[in-house]
Structure formats: C-alpha cells, structure tokens
C-alpha cells in the first residue's frame, strides 16, 4: 500500500488509521514509534502540514456509541421508537450525575490524563503536552434539564474525550497540555443559577454563595450534594489557582438557524446578553365566589397580565422574554391567590437594548399592577384594588465577545473538514443561550462551535443531533484545538 | 324580684338566667324543675310565647371565648396585635383538625348528645327531643383553607354548640331532636373537591370516588387520612340512612355587601351556580435563549392569555372567573414550559348564564391557543406554533334555592333579636360561595344566616367577624332552630 502523502510504502499501526493511509506510521517518515515504548510521541502539531492536520480524524462511530451508552445514567422520557429516542433527566449532583462523573474520571484516567476536581466539583482532565503552560481545553457539561435531551452539554464533553482518544490513537504530541472539563451545574435547573461553577472559577460568584444555593423544591444545597456524591474537590475553584490556556466548547445550536439555512458548523463569535429576575406579585387572598372583581387584589391575574406584557414588549424591542417558573399561594381552587412569584428571563444581542427593556418593564409592571392600562392588558378587565410588584435580579450576563484567534481556528478546522462545500456551510453566529464559555472567556481565549439540532429543539426530550452533525462538531473541535496548539507555539504562550 | 313576664315573684336557678328574669323558673309558672332530677324538661318550644322565645339568649361571651380557645389547634399567620389576630391553617383531616374534632365530640357528649360519625367522617351530635323524626341541625365545618381565618365554618359549628348549651341551660324541650354537624373537608383545599362530604351524604358523589381523592402536593387519600386520625365512621354517609330534618348554617358573608349596606343579618335564599375546571395547556419545552418567539409553543404564555381572557369575558357577562392553582413543567428559568395546568372557577347567579360563559370560553381558549386573536389578547404578540387546551370538569354546582319556611324562621329570629332596628338590618341575599347547605338543601329544608365580616375578607388570615356579629349570628341561629321546631310540630313533621 502506497502512502498518498509521503509517496512511499507504509504500514498502518492499527485499524484506526488504516483509512488515513500512513501519515504517521510510514517507515519513510523516520518517526514510527509506539507510545508505550518511548516517552517521545509520534508527531508534533508544529511539524504537521495542513494536509496532515486535515487527515487527523476522530472515530465518529465510537463517539456516538459511547455518548449514548452513558445516557443510560439519568435517562428520561421516551419520545420515539429508536434506541436513542429517549430524553435525559440528569440533574446536577444527583445519583445519575455521579455515575456520569465517575465514568468521566475513569475514562480520562485510562487515557493517561491527570484528573483534578475543584471546590465546585468541576473536573479537569489533562493530557500532557510538551511545554509548560495552562492547558487548551474542550469543556462543557454532563448535567441536563429535568426534561432535557442527550446532546446539550453532553456532546461537548464527549467530543472532548473523543479528541483526546484520537490524539492518543495517532500518538500526537501537543506543544501545550490539552484536556477536557466537565463543568458542574451548567443548567441551573436544580440549584437555580446556571453556569454557577464556571462562574465561581471566573470570580463572578463567591464560593460561599454558590455553596448556599438550595435546590428547587427541596432542601439540599449545592455543597451538601457535592459532599454527598464525593465531588467536593480540594483544588481551588479559581482562574488564578487553576488557569485555562484556551477553552473550546462544542454545543448544539439550540435554535433553528443552521438547520434552516443549510449550515453545518457555527463559529460562535459571542453570546447574547441576558438577565434573570424573580418577580413577586403581592395582592390579597380572597374567596373566589364572594369577592367581586373590584374588591380583589388578584396576584395571579396580575401575573398573567405581566407575563403577557413582557412578551409583547420584548417582541416590540426585538428581544426575548420568557417565564419558566411560577409559584403561587395559597393554592386552592376557590381562593384568589394573594401571592405569585415568577421567573422572568430577558435577552438581547446588545447590553443597551436589554437595559432599555428592563427599565421599561419595571415601569410598566407597576402601572399594570395598579390597574392602569398599558398596551391594552388592562383595557377590558375590572380594575381591582391593585397589587405590588417586586423585582429581584438573579443573574446578569452581559453580551460576550469571544476571541478572534480561537474563532479563526474553529473556522479553519471546519472548512478543512468540509472541503469544497465549506463556503456556505460555516457561518459566524451569536449564541442565544448562556454557556460556560461565557465565563471562561473572561479569563481565557475562548470560542464555541455550534452544530445543527433538529428544528432547533433543546431542553426537551426530543432534542436531536444527527450522528453526522455530532461527528462534524467533534471533528471541528479537535481540529480547532490542534490548530490553536500550533498557534500558541508560534506565539510562544 | 318580680318577673316582668309572668308578673310574679321569681327565683332564678342560675346566674345564666338572672338577666332573663324568671321566665322559666318562676314559682307561678308551676314548671320549675331541675333537669337532673326529672326526665321532663322545663319548657317546650310549642308552649313558648313569642315574648318568651325572644328572651332565650345565648351566652355571647362564652361563644367568643370557646371559639378562640379551639383556634389554638391549627393556628396560622399572625396579622394584628390582638390576642385573636391570628389566622388559621387547619387543613381537613390533619392533626390539628383531629384535635378540633376530638374537642367537638367530647363537648357535645358532655352536653348529653348522642354522637355519630359517618363513613366520610362527618360528625352528627344530637340532643334528644320529644318526638320521633330526623333532627333539626345547625351545621358547618371546622376545617379551613391553608391561609384561612377563624370564622369561615368555625363560627357556624360553634354557634350550633352554643345553641345546644343554651337549650340545656334553660332546660328547653324541643319537639324534635336538635343537633350540630361538623362536615368533613368543606374547603376542598387539601383534597380538591369542596363540600365533598355533604356531597356524598346528598348522593352527588360516590363514596368510592371521594375516598380516592389525593391531597394536593402529597400522596395521602381522603380515606387514608380518615383512618389515620380515627374518623372513618361506621354510619353510612347517606341522606337515606341518616336523614336530616332541617339544616341551618350560620356563616360569615365572605363578601362586603352587609358591611357596606349597614346590614346585620343576611337571610340567605340560595347560592350561585359555579363550576370548577382543570385546564391543561400543552405546548413544547424549549430553550428560552435560543428559540425565537415564532418557533415556540409556550404553554405559560398561553395560560396567561387564557386567564386574562377568562377574566375579561366573565366581566362582560356579569359572572366571576378565578384561577387559584397553577402548575407548570418542567419548571426551570431558562426553559419555556411545555405544560401548564390551572384551575378555573366560574360563577353566576343563573345556571343558563354560566353555561353560556363556559361554552364561549371553550371556543375562545382553543382559538387563543392557536394564535388567533380574541378580544385583543393575541393582538400584539408573535404568533408561535400553538398549544392545545384540554378541559376537565371537577365540580358542577347548579344555582341553589333554599326553603322559604326556613328562610322565614331566620328572618323572624333576626327581627326579634334586633327589635325596632330590624327593618333595614335584615336582608335577603344570595350566597356567592358554595356551602354544605347547598347539598343538604337537596334532601332537607335548609337556609343559611350570613353575618358581616370585615371588608368582606375571607380565605385570608385577616378574616374578621366582630364579637357582636358572631353573637348576632348565633342568636339568630338558635331562634331559627326553635322557631322551626315549633313549625315542625304544627305541621306534624
Ligand atoms: Zn448546554
Ligand atoms: Zn365555609
């Protein structure tokens, strides 16, 4: 068999590389070695030609198989007939999350990684590179929403592990350490601040406050659960104590833009701004049968008006507004609730637009609760005795801009993979959702890779990313990490 | 001391009657006896003149004191500085309800009553009368809303006990048995069908279905809790096995009409019709940050529109509409809920008006959920992918008309008590709320007595009925029961 690259006879070391030809094991390359018998590896990123780099390929089948095998832990609702047509319910720090974490640690250790756990339970698995310096990571999360899918977060972590496996298989020596991070409680579904753990790492939240977070509908705290499942690590959760050289995150788009435009890879330039509020409406409990509308202070009716108005106003301003949680008291069919609390999530690409929306809603909510008409929501009802509205800011995530050099590595990797079709299939995008990369970008060069997911559905059991798109994403991720490693060597950092 | 009625010298038997003069103990009346030494009682209702009847007075202080002493069991939120300015949270069949029940049984037994408990835990305490025939009852309930007050239901039961105490004190012999009923789970707050137990008695619900009711937010059933607290009685819960001769229910108005019109006693002619529904809105969970409005099936936003529209439409039709319970899934700040369920309580004085409203809302809800505009609720928002709406009827209580003869006894009793002022202070009313009397009226002569409560507030810790109004109500209740007893004797039933 003749090597197509080095134009010589070759001898593939394993089945894995047979389709790649002989690029790393060709006798003529003078570098044929087995990792197990020598401390020096086969090939350095800085010595690879673009052609060689393009030939480094992940094992797409392995990625798919391993990803779904680990989705046994915390599996949720079945939504289709296929073997993987089952959602996920792997809330952070629960028993299923512990199983997934244990698997992560074992697997990365078996790949030769050094594994460390920090005080927030974030897991850092590092594969040794040639030079000193903070690692170039692939990072994402293994936790899910209560009714989530198999790709959000999970794909990014698995793609990172597949990247390390491929580096091992091909015996690639990186200039700097590379690694994979599993961030704790990205979703904020159980302990209700999302990305809290990369947030602590970035210094956006104190460890103390993060530890105190109480689970929704329960009593456990983030700290008590970390302790319970054995993931309260000793490494300081801090960008200073544990710096990151670069952070690449592969993620499903969670929106329909790539799919509807025929795009394959999104090179994510940044993330939209968002704020999360808890809105408390206070009225007065009263009997539903004996209290005329004009004598009511109906907190539920008021909340309904506020939710509708937040939608109408956000639409007018080109923003998003959503309510995902609503609680009321006392909670009886024949008692008008005197207390309602709901979450309000508002988003915009621009910080200034978001602030404008926030200010407008604050004024409007008060007027609506007082019975004044704003944009029609009080136009037809009976004016009651009014309610009060209180705002509490829970999360403030300004618009984020990722690192141009990282974004370029993503673009180059994607274009190399897609070849001649790459033109329209790689596009720059803005993330609608928050991600751990938003926090890592505060202290480390960061970029994200988006792949399409069917109909843009996410945070839903039926979330789906095809084997082809999962593979494309993981391949782009590995290529971006290797390219960034070369880039660091050139820059000398 | 000269008797003002019999114009002779008298010798009061106890302090209790000293202010009444000597009407029952005057030597000249030839009927001075002690209950303990003779099976025959002192005075028969049929032999009492109107003047004598007017002189039979309850002990208002005792009523107030006893009522509040029993409110230690299940006390709720403090809302003022006074010793009784504390709400109630005595959910049916809980431990506090058991204490109140035990007190009820002991107290009525100590008054010489025969006490029976039926299969729904309803307690019937009966004081023996002269003739055979079903008892004339005062009935109401000792359970409360989770954030209820001290008067709703509780006043009616205590007034009944005070009526029996007064009959004992004055050694009154009734023609027919008299008694007090404590109905189980009137509120429907814990097991979510209100008046379920008088409903089973009336044949409106099967015992089997009532037993199966599961508590809101828990797993216990009505039957398991009846067993647990020892109130699963052996008497059949049925109007056939355990008939009622007449049912009088004293209750706070739970609305502001009496207070704002200077009324003292409401002679209640009937109750408005109402229906309770559980409305389920189904959409699709999706990520709040990545899903544009047009791609959403937002069940929470849809529910907000439906709740607002139910209010607007009910107002236009002169009805009431209220939502007291709302649940959603999955319940995470950054996930648009794909599932919302809420209660809808609609009410009207007329059955036909209520049916018309129901039909209109069924059509409108479907259109609104589909994104069509109905009365402006969809006028400004972005049309999404739509949701479905499902209706489940939980309770159907048609408009009720009480018994004219019972209502007249209430009016006469109230006018006799109020004397010269009675003119504008006694008024006929319709009940806005459902009460156990609605079910008793299906099989027994029934009427209700309303007394004012401050600002019409009820189902709220700050619910308040003054000592004067509590006393007026209990006095009217006793007078109505005695008058009805005479009326039964005249009619011979
Ligand atoms: Zn994610
Ligand atoms: Zn009541």
Would you kindly provide a written description of the structure presented here, covering whatever features stand out?
Two copies of one chain form a homodimer. With 493 residues, chain A is an alpha/beta fold. The first copy, chain A, folds into three domains: 4-41, no CATH class; 60-272 and 403-491, Zn peptidases (Aminopeptidase, 3-Layer(aba) Sandwich), CATH 3.40.630.10; 276-397, Alpha-Beta Plaits (2-Layer Sandwich). In chain A, 33% of the residues lie in helices and 20% in strands. Chain A has 14 helices and 20 strands. In chain A, α2 packs across α4 (154-169), α2 (60-70) packs across α14 and α9 (299-316) packs antiparallel against α10 (351-369). Chains A and B meet through β12, α9, β14, β15 and β16 of A and β12, α10, β14, β15 and β16 of B. Bound molecules: zinc ion (ZN) (2 copies). One zinc ion (ZN) is lined by residues 141, 152-153, 186, 251 of chain A.
Helical segment count of chain A:
14
Estimate the helix proportion of chain A, in percent: 25-40%
CATH topology of the largest domain in chain A: Aminopeptidase
CATH C-level class of the largest domain in chain A: Alpha Beta
Q: Average pLDDT across residues of chain A? A: 91
List descriptors.
493 residues, Aminopeptidase, Amidase_Cbmase (chains A, B), homodimer, binds zinc ion, hydrolase (chains A, B), 9-stranded mixed β-sheet, alpha/beta, Alpha-Beta Plaits, 5-stranded antiparallel β-sheet, elongated, disordered N terminus, Peptidase_M20 (chains A, B)
């Amino acid at each position: 068999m003749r090597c197509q690259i080095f134009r010589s006879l070759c001898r593939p070391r394993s089945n894995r590389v047979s389709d790649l030809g002989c690029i790393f094991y060709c006798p003529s390359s003078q570098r044929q070695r087995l990792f197990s018998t020598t401390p020096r590896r086969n090939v350095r990123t800085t010595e690879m030609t673009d052609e060689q780099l393009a030939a480094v390929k992940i094992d797409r089948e392995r990625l798919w198989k391993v990803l779904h095998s680990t989705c046994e832990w915390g599996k949720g609702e079945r939504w289709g007939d296929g073997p993987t047509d089952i959602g996920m319910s792997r809330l952070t720090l629960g028993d299923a999350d512990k199983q997934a974490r244990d698997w992560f640690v074992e697997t990365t250790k078996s790949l030769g990684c050094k594994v460390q756990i920090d005080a927030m339970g974030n897991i850092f698995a590092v594969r040794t590179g040639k030079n000193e310096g903070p690692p170039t990571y692939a990072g994402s999360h293994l936790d899910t929403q209560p009714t989530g899918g198999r790709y959000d977060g999970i794909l990014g972590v698995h793609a990172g592990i597949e990247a390390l496996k491929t580096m091992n298989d091909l015996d690639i020596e990186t200039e700097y350490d590379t690694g994979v991070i599993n961030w704790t409680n990205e979703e904020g579904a159980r302990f209700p601040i999302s990305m809290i753990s990369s947030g602590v790492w970035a210094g956006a939240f104190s460890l103390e406050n993060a530890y105190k977070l109480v689970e929704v509908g329960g009593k456990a705290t983030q700290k008590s659960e970390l302790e319970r499942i054995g993931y309260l690590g000793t490494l300081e959760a801090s960008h200073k104590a544990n710096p990151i050289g670069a952070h690449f995150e592969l993620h499903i788009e969670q929106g329909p833009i790539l799919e509807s435009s025929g795009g394959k890879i999104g090179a994510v330039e940044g993330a939209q701004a968002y704020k999360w509020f808890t809105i408390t409406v206070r009225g007065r409990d009263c009997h539903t049968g004996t209290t005329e509308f004009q004598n009511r202070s109906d907190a539920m009716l008021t909340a309904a008006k506020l939710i509708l108005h937040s939608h109408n106003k956000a639409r007018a301003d080109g923003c998003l507004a959503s309510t995902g949680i609503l609680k009321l008291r006392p909670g009886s069919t024949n008692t008008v609730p005197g207390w309602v609390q709901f979450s309000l999530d508002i988003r915009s690409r621009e910080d200034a637009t978001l602030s404008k929306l926030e200010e407008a809603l604050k004024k409007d909510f008060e007027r609506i609760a007082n019975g004044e008409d704003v944009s029609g929501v009080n136009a037809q009802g009976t004016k009651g005795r009014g309610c009060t509205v209180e705002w509490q800011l829970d999360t403030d995530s300004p618009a984020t801009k990722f690192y141009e050099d990282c974004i370029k590595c993503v673009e180059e990797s994607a274009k190399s993979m897609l070849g001649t079709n790459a033109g329209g299939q790689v596009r720059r995008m803005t993330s609608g959702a928050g991600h751990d990369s938003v926090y890592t970008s505060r202290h480390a060069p960061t970029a994200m890779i988006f792949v399409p997911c069917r109909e843009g559905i996410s945070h839903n059991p039926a979330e789906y990313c095809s084997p082809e798109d999962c593979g494309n994403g993981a391949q782009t991720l590995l290529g971006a990490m290797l390219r960034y490693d070369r880039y660091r060597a050139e820059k000398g950092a």
